[in-house]
Amino acid sequence: MDSRPVGIFDSGFGGLTAVRALRAICPAENIVFFADNGRAPYGGRPVAQLRRMAVQNLDMAASFDAKVIFAACGTLSSNAADILREYPVPTFGVLDAAVASIAAQRAASPIGVIATQATVNSGAFERALRRACPEREVYAQACPSFVPLIESGCADAENAALREAVAEYLQPLREKEIGTLLLGCTHYGLIAPALRDYLGENVMLVDASECAAGFIKNYLEQNDMCGAGGSFRCVTSGARKHFDALSPLFLGQKEPPETVAVPPMPTEEE
Ligand code: DGL
């Protein structure tokens, strides 16, 4: 038993998909979530800057006395995998678990990966999928307007701007007749209904947050580190009012969670 919290971080609301996934399968875990809304989006930033932000976010999560850290961000998981691996607190990104879950599918259809521009540029998901599923074709598509839309609250499947963006980005993947779509950015789980509407029921959506949550559950069980309590609190580097307005929507609950706002950490420009 270990009642220290699981520390989770992301550039913003996307990390709530990780929070939801972990709370669903580990309801007794105490969770502290750092949402770097003040610096979102991450996906268009240069690699060197992303790597510095990875260290800052890890240090922030460690400052909560986290027993494990969940880097609920595809962009940092793919651009700073070595930094996450070497961090002194056990840290899980979202890449390996998602790839392992797709490798277990035993399907032959092409795989689509949607993610931020920085994630697609890194080639990390494509490389790992080609290694794990050499018989399947892999097509990656950057979706740069999804995160700004979600951060501003446009996540409803009926939202016109979102529907337009979904059609623009997913059309090339639909033409390739993909059978699996990997949501390589944790924000995208928040727009799964819009993605599902466009692609239809026959394409399997794989949510990187849900896959990673399963990995973490196993790790905690195998290392006798399961928690007790089930508390949940948030720290945002954005405006508290904005976080309070949108977080209940994305968490599927009426009231905002206990949240404190902190100033954004300094970001050195390139
Ligand atoms: N949710 C993050 C990811 O998984 C960051 C997206 C962004 O801020 O651009 O990539």
Percentage of residues in DSSP E strands: 15-25%
Distinct small molecules: D-glutamic acid
CATH architecture of the largest domain: 3-Layer(aba) Sandwich
**Main sheet characteristics:** 6 strands, parallel
Helix amount, in percent?
Answer: 40-55%
What is the overall shape? globular
Write the layout of secondary structure elements.
Elements: E1 6-10, H1 15-25, E2 31-35, H2 47-62, E3 68-71, H3 74-79, H4 81-86, E4 91-92, H5 95-103, E5 111-115, H6 117-122, H7 124-132, E6 138-142, H8 146-151, H9 160-175, E7 180-183, H10 192-199, E8 204-207, H11 208-222, E9 232-236, H12 240-251, E10 258-261
Parallel strand pairs: 1-2, 1-3, 2-9, 3-4, 5-6, 5-7, 7-8, 9-10
Helix pairs in contact: 1-11, 5-7, 5-11, 9-10
The structure holds D-glutamic acid (DGL).
Structural description of this entry:
- The strands form two sheets. A six-stranded parallel beta sheet has the order 4-3-1-2-9-10, with helices on both faces. The protein has a four-stranded parallel beta sheet with strand order 6-5-7-8, with helices on both faces.
- It is globular and about 45 Å long.
- The model has no long low-confidence stretch (mean pLDDT 97).
- The protein is 44% helix and 16% strand.
- Helix 1 (15-25) crosses helix 11 and helix 9 (160-175) crosses helix 10.
- By secondary structure, the protein is of the alpha/beta class.
- Helix 12 links the parallel strand 9 and strand 10.
- The longest helix is centred in the first third of the chain and has 16 residues, at 47-62.
- The chain starts with 5 loop residues before the first strand and ends in a 9-residue tail after the last strand.
- It folds into two domains: 6-94 and 210-261, Rossmann fold; 96-208, 3-Layer(aba) Sandwich (Rossmann fold).
- It has twelve helices and ten strands.
- The structure holds D-glutamic acid.
- D-glutamic acid binds at residues 10-11, 14, 40-43, 73-75, 116, 119, 147, 185-187.
- The site of D-glutamic acid has 16 residues, from helix 3.
